Amino acid sequence: MTGIYSDEPRLALLTTTEAREIIELLRLLEQLDPGGRGWAAGQLAADLARRLPTP
């Protein structure tokens, strides 16, 4: 590899608050999908929720 990488701590891709907001939006999308494909958004929300620390 080439390049110089900083030794500074890296930021998380999402904060816990952002992840919780995304989960809520995915659950809403699941409910609003009239085509019956909303289950995929619900599955993604469930997967993300399992990865979050409990409050």
Q: Can you describe this structure?
A:
The structure is a single chain. The chain has 55 residues and is mostly helical. The protein has a domain at 16-51. It contains 2 helices and no strands. The protein is elongated, with a radius of gyration of 16 Å.
Write the layout of secondary structure elements.
Elements: H1 16-32, H2 39-51
Quick overview:
This protein has helices at 16-32, 39-51. The protein has 55 residues and is mostly helical.
The total strand number stands at 0
CA-based shape: elongated
Class derived from helix and strand content: mainly alpha
Mean pLDDT over the residues: 85
Which key features would you list for this structure?
single chain; 55 residues; mainly alpha; 2 helices
